[in-house]
Design a protein that fits this description.
By secondary structure, the protein is of the alpha+beta class. The protein has one domain: 2-Layer Sandwich (Alpha-Beta Plaits). It contains three helices and five strands, in the order H-E-H-E-E-H-E-E. Strands 4-1-3-2-5 form a five-stranded mixed sheet, covered by helices on one side. The protein is globular, with a radius of gyration of 13 Å.
Length: 100
């Protein structure tokens, strides 16, 4: 069971979303989920291989919740899988952006 300190620890996760995730509003979906959770920062973008990639940083519990939401995706998407890798947190990263 996680303790309060575990859920508040700042973590950063790199993710790759596989499936039908480009041209269906997936990046905007991620941006909306991040805004709804509050307190997260990072970025998301379409990759040339047809995946959506990004990084998100914030409290461990919020990052984990976003990881669950990435599997759902917007209405017209079809998420096959999501790969995660935890990376070092970045100081001063306070916003979330859609990269082109």
């Amino acid at each position: 069971m996680a303790t309060y300190a575990d859920t508040e620890q700042t973590v950063r996760a790199r993710f790759t979303v596989h499936g039908r995730v480009q041209g269906v509003g997936y990046r905007r979906y991620v941006e909306k989920q991040v805004a709804a959770l509050g307190g997260l920062s990072g970025w998301v973008m379409n990759a040339s291989d047809g995946t959506v990639v990004g990084e998100v940083q914030g409290a461990r519990a919020d990052v984990r919740r976003l990881e669950e939401l990435l599997l759902v995706g917007p209405t017209h998407s079809s998420v096959a899988s999501v790969d995660y890798d935890y990376v070092p947190a970045v100081a001063g990263d306070g916003s979330f952006k859609i990269r082109r």
